[in-house]
Amino acid sequence: MWFDQHVHMEHGPYTPLEYSREWLEQFLDIGRSRQVTGLGIVEHGYRFTESAGLLPGDWAARRCLYPLRGYTKFLDEVRHQYPIAVGLEMDYVPASEEGIRAYLNHYSWDFILGSVHFIDDFGLDVGEMRDEYTRRDPEDIWSAYYQYSIKAAQSGLFQVITHPDLPKIYGFPKPPDSVLVPWYHQFVEALGDNHVALEINTAGLRRPVKEIYPHPRLLLEAARAHLPVTLASDAHEPENVGRFFDEARNLALECGIEAITAFTARGVQTISLR
Ligand SMILES: [Zn+2]
Ligand SMILES: [Zn+2]
Question: The domain that contains 68 carries what CATH number?
Answer without folding.
Answer: 3.20.20.140
